Every structure is written in C-alpha cells, then in structure tokens.
C-alpha cells in the first residue's frame, strides 16, 4: 500500500481531466530517498537471570557493544536515530553504542522485544515454545516489521541511516520478510552477539541485503552467539 498509484484517490482521479494532473499527483507520492537499516543484535548477556532486569550484559558483552559502536562510528554516516528493544540487554547495548554516536536520538519500543515470530521450518528439538507464543509474539513482531521496514516517505528528501538494536529472532524474521523469503526459514540463520545486518530499501520498494550478521570487526576471541 505504498505504491504511488495506491495513494491516490481513484474516484477523484477519474474526475480529473488530462494525464498531466495524474502524473503530477504520482510524482508527489513517489519516494525519492533510500533508507539504510542497520539491525544490531544485542551483546552477550547473563543467561542465568530469572527476570529481564537480571539479564544484564556480561563484561564480554560490554566489550562487544564497544566494538560495535566503534565500527558504526567508523562508517562515517550521519545516523538519524537508534530504535531499540525495551529489554534490558538491548537497552544496555544501545547505551554503550550511543556513546560512540553522540547526538543521535534513542527511542525505546516494546515492539522489538524478543519472541517467537513464527513456527520454524524445519522444526528444532532444542527450542519448542508454547503454541500461544507464536500468536502473541508473532503478531507483535510482524507489526514491528510493517511499522519500521518500508520505503521512505515521499516527503523525505535525503537518504537516511537508522539503527535498530534488538534480538536474533526479530532480526532473522525481519530479514526473511524484507527479502520476501518464506518467513518460516528464519531459524536457518545464525547471528553473533553485537553483529551488524544492513538492509537497503530503495525508493521503488526494492530491498537489498548488504551484510548479514557481520562481526568481522571483532577479534575472534570476542565473538559469541549466546
């Protein structure tokens, strides 16, 4: 529903005379800028924590976040915002990354919290959430995809660079949906802690995946996936 023709009142269009008016309206509805989406998986955290507030970053996780922040800063891009999951490990990762990107606003959202997006195909034996989780989490994560991953607004004049700090399941699902791959295959991908996934959304709505789970900027002994 972001195609320019879909944004025009067809009844009103039919009442207009001449193609010139239609062309003008279409031009005003067309996106002109490219969106660069950087999806960051949170750093390593304390798996023994019972509640979310106890699942804080480990010392290694804090190091990973510093390395990710340094890498993002080294790209020399003018980042517009950092949107992050409201879960503790994502919030702490964001706070460390943001030190390397002074002045970039931070926005917290529950939509990007970790969850079970859709039943994976093929299934895995070590991870079997209750069926109700797919209905609850899946609807929320799909809503996050639709809300955040789309072509630029027609009013946007310049290319934008946005960072999203969230979780492996959310990122993997978003990548499948953005590339129009079967979303059931999301669990076939693996993402390291603090990794960078880069999606590009062109004005015509086409999406390209530039990097998936990049941690080449980290020393081998700092790389983890838990």
TrEMBL record:
Segments forming a coiled coil: none
Transmembrane region(s): none
Cited SMART domains: PGAM (SM00855)
Reaction equation(s) it catalyzes: O-phospho-L-seryl-[protein] + H2O = L-seryl-[protein] + phosphate; O-phospho-L-threonyl-[protein] + H2O = L-threonyl-[protein] + phosphate
Keyword annotations from UniProtKB, A to Z: Hydrolase, Membrane, Mitochondrion, Mitochondrion outer membrane, Necrosis
Record EC number: 3.1.3.16
InterPro entries given in the database record: His_Pase_superF_clade-1 (IPR013078), His_PPase_superfam (IPR029033), Mito_Ser/Thr_phosphatase (IPR051021)
Top enzyme category: hydrolase
GO biological process terms on file: positive regulation of mitochondrial fission; programmed cell death
Cited PANTHER family: PHOSPHOGLYCERATE MUTASE-RELATED, SERINE_THREONINE-PROTEIN PHOSPHATASE PGAM5, MITOCHONDRIAL
Homology family: Belongs to the phosphoglycerate mutase family. BPG-dependent PGAM subfamily.
Annotated protein name in UniProt: Serine/threonine-protein phosphatase PGAM5, mitochondrial
Originating species: Podilymbus podiceps (Pied-billed grebe)
């Amino acid at each position: 529903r972001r195609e320019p023709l879909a944004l025009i009142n067809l009844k009103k269009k039919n009442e207009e005379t001449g193609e010139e008016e239609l062309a003008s309206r279409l031009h005003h509805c067309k996106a002109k800028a490219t969106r660069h989406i950087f999806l960051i998986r949170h750093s390593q955290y304390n798996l023994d924590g019972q509640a979310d507030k106890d699942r804080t970053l480990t010392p290694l996780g804090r190091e990973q976040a510093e390395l990710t922040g340094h890498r993002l800063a080294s790209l020399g891009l003018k980042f517009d915002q950092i949107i992050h999951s409201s879960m503790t490990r994502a919030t702490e990762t964001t706070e460390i990354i943001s030190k390397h990107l002074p002045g970039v606003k931070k926005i917290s959202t529950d939509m990007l919290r970790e969850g079970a997006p859709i039943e994976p195909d093929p299934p895995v034996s070590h991870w079997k959430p209750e069926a109700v989780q797919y209905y609850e989490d899946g609807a929320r994560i799909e809503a996050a995809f639709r809300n955040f991953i789309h072509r630029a607004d027609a009013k946007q004049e310049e290319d934008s660079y946005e960072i999203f700090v969230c979780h492996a399941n959310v990122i993997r699902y978003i990548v499948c949906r953005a590339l129009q791959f079967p979303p059931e295959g999301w669990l076939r991908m693996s993402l390291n802690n603090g990794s960078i996934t880069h999606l590009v959304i062109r004005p015509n709505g086409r999406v390209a995946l530039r990097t998936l789970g990049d941690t080449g900027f980290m020393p081998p002994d700092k790389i983890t996936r838990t």
